[in-house]
Design goal:
2 domains; 274 residues; globular; mainly alpha; single chain
Length: 274
């Protein structure tokens, strides 16, 4: 069953590619419909896993990636509904399919240790995943901004000019996505710190005792918070909008991906709840 959402994400990615190349309204509506089906199926699978285990299946890196993908899909569909703009789907949906392959291949839900049975943890994880989804949107918007900017600078109004929103619209969307993501990241870090202060003093689990700023998983998240905080500050106080903000969004999401896969699987001593 876990393979069905991934296959539907692949089909949606193909449909968005057709829409981007042809600018066909029919292809665009079909792409949105397939992505909607993929998202609903993914939510259903997560719901079944929740009923099976008694908790949200976001423990461990594979579960977190699955949660990230479905939140990104929901966030993108909401953005598409608000703007009636489907051109960015070709940049957003293919990475969803690639990332969803990871939990599909592992095909297992990690058992939640007793120490993680806390409502604080649910808020912590969901806040961070929603922040990552917002940062993913900001990154894609930033990349499309740079592509369109280069085309306009070269005075060659062609492929991207006829398919992407204006630079102003892209810049506004980027700023909103980063702001929402940073707020959720702040909430997630604050809630995680509160939970850690409650459980760490008497914890016997070595993974909980390893939760310090020196653990790569935590230090990279703090670096991520600083990168996006600087982007918001630079946008408001230094006038770093447009291309500079787009580049910062891409740099920030590179840190997100670094934290998600290589560090989440191979470097952390505190968050390896597989």
């Amino acid at each position: 069953m876990t393979a069905i959402p991934m296959l539907l994400y692949v089909a949606a990615a193909a449909a968005y590619a057709v829409h981007f190349g042809s600018r066909s309204d029919v292809a665009g509506r079909c792409a949105t419909l397939v992505l909607g089906c993929a998202t609903l199926t993914h939510v259903f699978v997560i719901g079944m896993q929740t009923m099976e285990t008694g908790h949200l299946p976001v423990v461990g890196t594979s579960g977190a990636i699955s949660g990230f993908v479905v939140l990104l899909a929901l966030a993108y569909l909401y953005t598409e509904m608000m703007t009636n703009e489907r051109s960015m789907g070709v940049f957003i949906v293919p990475p969803m399919a690639v990332l969803q392959a990871i939990p599909t291949l592992t095909n297992a839900v990690a058992t939640r240790p007793a120490v993680l049975e806390s409502q604080w943890l649910a808020v912590h994880v969901l806040s961070l995943l929603f922040a990552y989804a917002s940062f993913a949107l900001a990154c894609v918007i930033g990349v499309t901004y740079v592509l369109l900017f280069k085309e306009l600078k070269a005075k060659h109004l062609g492929f991207f000019y006829s398919r992407l929103p204006s630079l102003r619209v892209l810049d506004v969307m980027n700023g909103r996505a980063v702001t929402v993501g940073w707020l959720f990241l702040t909430v997630g870090l604050a809630v995680g710190a509160i939970w850690l202060m409650q459980v760490q003093p008497g914890a016997v689990d070595p993974r909980v005792r390893a939760m310090t700023v020196f653990d790569p998983k935590i230090s990279i998240v703090l670096l991520m918070w600083l990168v996006y905080a600087f982007e918001l500050y630079a946008r408001r106080s230094l006038g770093w909008s447009g291309r500079r903000a787009a580049v910062l969004s891409a740099v920030g999401f590179t840190v997100v991906l670094l934290n998600f896969v290589p560090i989440g699987y191979f470097a952390t001593r505190s968050h390896n709840f597989y």
